[in-house]
Amino acid sequence: MSAGLNLAQQEAVNYLHGPCLVLAGAGSGKTRVITHKIGRLIQAGLEAKRIAAITFTNKAAAEMRERAKQLVGREAKEVLICTFHALGVRMMRQDGAALGLKPQFSILDTDDVTSILKDAGGTTDAATARQWQWAISSWKNQGLNAAQAEAQAKDDLERTTARIMARYEERLTAYQSVDFDDLIGLPLKLLRDHAEVRDKWQQQLGHVLVDEYQDTNATQYELLKLLVGERGRFTAVGDDDQSIYGWRGATLDNLKKLPQDYPTLKVVKLEQNYRSTSAILRAANNVIGPNPKLFPKTLFSELGEGEPVRIVDCDHEEHEAERTVARIQSIRANGLGKDWKDFAVLYRANHQARVFEQALRKAQIPYKVSGGQSFFDRAEIRDLCAWLRLWVNNDDDPAFLRSVTTPKRGIGHQTLQSLGTFASKYKLSLFEALFSSSLGSVLPARAVGSLHEFGRYVNDLEFRARHTEGAESARAFLLEWLKDIAYEKHLYDGEDSEKVAAARWTNVLEFCDWMAQRCGGEIDDTAGVSLTSEKKNLLEVAQTIALLSTISEREKDQNVVTLSTLHAAKGLEWPHVVLAGCVEGLLPFKPEDEGGKPVSEEFAQRLQEERRLMYVGITRAQRSLAVSYSKRRKKGREMVPAMPSRFIAEMALEKTTTKEDPREKLKALRAEFAKKATETAAAAAATGNG
Ligand SMILES: Nc1ncnc2c1ncn2[C@@H]1O[C@H](COP(=O)(O)OP(=O)(O)OP(=O)(O)O)[C@@H](O)[C@H]1O
Ligand SMILES: [Mg+2]
């Protein structure tokens, strides 16, 4: 099991009988230590089923299972490789009876939780319920129950929320249900209060391994402690510089507490990075540099200097997406990246994915969105695409069925069923069938009338779309159509929460805007960077979109470009990475320290976590890294000037010699950079919002 491991890794892998912490920077082979140690433990005679390896996501668990299988063969199947939450489910299914839970208890998703909270708190407003949900979740993560939360409440709002929590908990018990946080909290209670269950689990588990240890929260720490007991046979691997879930209750205290709680703890540090080139690693080290150090670490790579990190400045977000696509295409053309799966575009927030999705679709590049829903998979966008498909191809039956019922127009299930039977009998599409003169023999006149009306409406739309050109007329046409079919009302009627409906309506408007721009030639379809002025009619545009909306089928082979949030990219690696949207306000989020105002302690802490997030992003890249930002960005419906992220200036630092104080150099660079950024913003503001 020591093949492919350096000495420090071997030390961690071979240390079997006591608590072990591997503390090391990104890409230094921590996860590799875990998979190899599983093999080593089995080799040393521990039964596979007595080993548990805990990962941060289900996806990471699946990957680790695969790697373990390659290393140790079939036996790996017996190892319990899962997330903390999945382990919790297993414990509760086996032993939840001690807490009054039946083995077949249900696990609620967030929507269920929201509706139970609405009921418990006597409100119909989903947004309010979600606020309670957030507060309750954070209490649960700190290990507090309703009574304890009420006792420590700081104000009336917290007191009320704690009382709602009590009613919420009563309901969960009555429904034999648990929420996501209970999957950690209840097993903890189980082990704490029931010695026989605790003994059973401590006997059962011969060794517990934990990946991404820096992102565990207080209840997970306690759970681990009770699972491994006094003997403390566990291996935790982590990197304090990659702790990015502070906002969800993860705490670095868990790292600090380990040596105190386990005096025999063996600490292993790994210093060689096997993932990235020196150029990428230097950028990462420079960004994380200013953060206070919990444990001193140095990281080096032997993969050579490699390509310099590219800073890509763009005019606006669409431009950024186009340049990203152009970069991917050029790297492929140069033979540096063969497969689509060699590429990832990473960003801060889910909503940033949209422009990249659109640009990739235009260029017919397959992709997947991880850590969030794809813009084109949203129900409202799928609704609109169904209509477009129907204009373009009347014989598209699935599109017909979706359009004729979205929004509802008094054409019911039975009518559609009869139409379907009739159509298949005569080998017609649904659309052809509805105009057939003998349809009256199977449907009442009123139903035929409604179908005809719908058919004529679609024909009319198709005709008008063909004669609509230019952005302005396209926009007007699309808005009129949405008004005709009362789509906005349909969204509001179908959603409990006005806020959610409004967000969906905004997506619809964005989509229409995007189509309209393509009609005006404002967006170039040849995936170049320049803007062309060639106008298209709306039907032509609909045609390309209709084609694109079926592209997602191609994702299945998984040789696709990854679009991902930074949080969801943790632990993963790609040969080529684009870190997009690196502007102040997004990364770091909401800067507060502009204009030399003194910053609060809370903000300083936030900024440290932002810096770690950037570090996580940079260190995903193996061979090439581009960091991009745009000079203007959309805020709501408006374009506002944007400043490049402060982290960009910090990354670009050259290699420092030991004599130089990097902080002084950083200060100077920052000042120069801030000056440039202000000039850029002023220039952008002067040219208007366009
Ligand atoms: N001793 C080694 N020899 C060769 N390659 C290695 C070695 N150790 C790790 N690697 C490779 O380096 C890359 C990074 O390893 P790994 O993912 O285990 O790092 P990590 O420390 O878990 O990173 P992260 O902090 O991002 O989770 C992987 O491609 C892995 O296969
Ligand atoms: Mg890892």
UniProtKB/TrEMBL annotation:
Kindly give the Gene3D superfamilies that the UniProt entry links to this protein: 1.10.10.160, P-loop containing nucleotide triphosphate hydrolases, PCRA, domain 4
Which residue ranges does the record assign to the UvrD-like helicase C-terminal domain?
278-571
- In its UniProt record, which GO terms are filed under biological process? DNA replication; recombinational repair
GO terms assigned for molecular function: 3'-5' DNA helicase activity; ATP binding; ATP hydrolysis activity; single-stranded DNA binding
State where ATP binds.
24-31, 275
Q: What class of enzyme is it?
A: isomerase
Q: Name one Pfam family in it.
A: UvrD-helicase
> What's in the GO CC field?
cytosol
* Reaction(s) the record says it catalyses: Couples ATP hydrolysis with the unwinding of duplex DNA by translocating in the 3'-5' direction; ATP + H2O = ADP + phosphate + H(+)
Q: What is the E.C. number?
A: 5.6.2.4
| Chain ranges of the UvrD-like helicase ATP-binding domain | 3-277
Q: Which PROSITE patterns match?
A: UVRD_HELICASE_ATP_BIND (PS51198), UVRD_HELICASE_CTER (PS51217)
Keywords, sorted A to Z: ATP-binding, DNA replication, DNA-binding, Helicase, Hydrolase, Isomerase, Nucleotide-binding
For this protein, the record's HAMAP family field holds: Helicase_Rep
Assembly and oligomerization: Homodimer.
This chain's function reads:
Rep helicase is a single-stranded DNA-dependent ATPase involved in DNA replication; it can initiate unwinding at a nick in the DNA. It binds to the single-stranded DNA and acts in a progressive fashion along the DNA in the 3' to 5' direction.
Family according to the record: Belongs to the helicase family. UvrD subfamily.
The protein's name in its UniProt record: ATP-dependent DNA helicase Rep
What organism is this sequence from? Caenimonas sedimenti
